[in-house]
Input
Amino acid sequence: MYKVFRYRLYPTAAQRARLDSMLETCRWFCNDCLSEQKVAYETEGRTISKVEQFRRVKIYKTNNPFAAGIHSHILQVVVSDLDKTFQAFFRRINSLEKKDSKPEIENISSRILSKSMKKCFISLDIEQNFLWVL
Output
């Protein structure tokens, strides 16, 4: 059982714009990293490691004006979360293939979420102004 704390946020218009910009930049960076991994696998048949994508954070910050104001650690967390998602997904797929059963994506994602919540997770819901700490 997890204890959840819910805090109501009242950001100013400037803070809301800054948070929206940060979330959008992180989303774009995550999608870029994902497409880079997909293209590398489809064209070269190789996977891109987390370290290679960590190196890409510095390049992304210099080339993207929106990412210049975001701390590198936040973008590194995006890369780390993407890598954890890949590792957990393929671990679950491999375990289901060994059992000769058909993988069900809903069950896989719920198991990934339930087993990966071993540390503090902070989620920000901008539209409803809530900060969730699990």
User: Anything to note?
Assistant: Residues 13-44 form the longest helix (32 residues). Residues 12-119 form one domain. The radius of gyration is 18 Å. The chain has one domain: 12-119.
